[in-house]
Amino acid sequence: IVCSSQEESYGRGATTAANIINADSTVVIDVDYGNTPDVDKKICGILGKGPTIALSVETDRRLTKKLISLTDEKELPAKVVLNPTSTGTNANHYVNSETGIPTVAVGIPQRNMHTPLEVINTKDVEYAATLISKYILDQYEIK
């Protein structure tokens, strides 16, 4: 587990970790745009309706499909969001590391991003934790 910050200013923590740990894959967890009147519905989650799963050039297609299929199999709430160029997270630092680590990105929908009054629904944190734990158990065939 790597806890890092500064993804919006060079991602030094994630870049360093990616080049040191040489992981099989990564799950990047961050906040994501929540439903707000002035935000495109294709790129935002809905507070209280589960995490977002990024579909992006930065995310691994096979692992992302697996994550999405788990939401169906386990009846877990989540929304696929389109991030055509970037997820805005540390995902790109793992993908572009020396070894090119396959990455998926899960977001907690948040309203009012980058303001003093950011808002999330704690149910989305629980839904994300459940989805990620099921994903890890499935990836490593842990029963």
Task: Tell me what the structure shows.
The chain has 143 residues and is α/β, with parallel strands linked by helices. The protein contains 4 helices and 4 strands. Strands 1-4-2-3 form a 4-stranded mixed β-sheet. Helix 2 packs across helix 4. The longest helix is centred in the C-terminal third of the chain and has 18 residues. It starts with 11 loop residues before the first helix and ends with a helix. The model has no long low-confidence stretch (mean pLDDT 90).
How is this structure best summarized?
With 143 residues, the chain is α/β, with parallel strands linked by helices.
Label this structure with key terms.
single chain; alpha/beta; 4-stranded mixed β-sheet
* Secondary structure tally, helices: 4
Which structural class matches the secondary elements? alpha/beta
Give the averaged pLDDT, no decimals.
90
- Which oligomerization state do the chains in this entry correspond to? single chain
DSSP strand count? 4
Describe the main β-sheet briefly: 4 strands, mixed
Distance from N terminus to C terminus (CA atoms, Å) equals 21 Å
Low-confidence stretches: none
User: What share of the residues lie within helices?
Assistant: 25-40%
How much is the radius of gyration in Å? 15 Å
Q: Provide the β-strand percentage band.
A: 15-25%
Strand order of the largest sheet: 1-4-2-3
Shape: globular
Order of helices and strands: HEEHEHEH
